[in-house]
Amino acid sequence: MSQFDxxxxxxxxxxxxxxxxxxxxxxxxxxxxxxADMDFAAPPAVQEAIVNRTKHPIYGYTNRPKPFFxxxxxxxxxxxxxxxxxxxxxxxxxVVPNLGLAVQAFTNPGDGVIIQPPVYPxxxxxxxxxxxxxxxxxLIEQQEGYYVMDFDHLEEVASKPENKLLLLCHPHNPVGxxxxxxxxxxxxxICKEHNVIxxxxxxxxxxxxxxxxxxxxxTISSELAEITLTCMAPSKTFNLAGYSTSYMIASxxxxxxxxxxQVMGYHLHMGNTFGALALEAAYNHSEPWLEELxxxxxxxxxxxxxxLKSEMPEVKARKPEATYLLWMDFxxxxxxxxxxxxxxxxEVGLGLNDGxxxxxxxxxxxxxxxxxxxxxxxxxxxxxxSARDRMQKV
Length: 394
Fold this sequence. Notes:
Distance between the termini: 41 Å
CATH topology of the largest domain: Aspartate Aminotransferase, domain 2
CATH class of the largest domain: Alpha Beta
Pfam family, one: Aminotran_1_2
CATH architecture of the largest domain: 3-Layer(aba) Sandwich
Radius of gyration: 21 Å
Domain Aminotransferase class I/classII large: 29-381
Order of helices and strands: HHEHHEHEHEEEHEHEHEHEHHHEEHEEEH
Strand order of the largest sheet: 2-10-9-8-7-3-4
EC number: 4.4.1.13
Largest sheet: 7 strands, mixed
Family: Belongs to the class-II pyridoxal-phosphate-dependent aminotransferase family. MalY/PatB cystathionine beta-lyase subfamily.
Number of helices: 15
Number of domains: 2
Oligomer: single chain
Strand content: 5-15%
Organism: Natronoflexus pectinivorans
């Protein structure tokens, strides 16, 4: 039995995943497989570090000394062969806040920000919220749910001088792509030619599956590093989202200076007492835990995709190259987006992410979070098949 088979009761823990069910789905009983945190205990080393710190009764302002930065540097060196100088790193409370700060740092109201839908919904929000223009460069869906970038269209929109910034999702949420060096290089060359800065959201970089390899955009060449601000965090990897410990990396001092000015301007630089300790324990002592996690997630992906092929072949889902998120294609059911969402909630009993929230390209899709014990995922799929069978009999 895997440690990840253990069902942990998250009731009464102020978990958004559970406590927002009534608000979002109108039903507090659905199995919550939506918001992207995991139903797994954090690594033992993280738990131990936090418990030890709580024994001291004062939780005042804290700093991030050299060991915090060394943990990041050593992690990036071991996992990605990326040698990062401490002066390139700036703390921030989260990757989504990073995106909003970057939009303010590198664009003015009315400027265009390029995104590549279907994409994580906050990519739209951080642009619109600050009165910038969303410029869509939609991904191209090829056979069997495989997505690629539309470089011809990217060239077109990047060439317009009012479009100053590209928000890159790498690996991509929700379609699960790990962009190749060739894809990243071509995208980067287009942006470099047209003076478009790239904000690379790499929060899922540690969660690569099936032997795929994540290559940080900034490591490909010095030319691409000059126009790239990378956003990372241990939150998805080690289930630490509640500790708000993220960071930005840029070797170009001007980019980092502009981003840092936003962090300091909003007084976000302090962090919290436990976040830095959690990061250090995760990066320094929890690599074996991560390897077991990846194997378990692959098992969940295999189960669901095999189940669909054998029991519901009209529903398509390509195995993601990274993340624990499955992009499920229900277009064959011929349901409107609202009908599909209501069916999942009221007939299936599942709380999934509605595909249209990722852009119009997501109509007919749902995103399913597979970072739960296998028994929960099995129950969810059995409920889905039963409801689908009932629908077909009507």
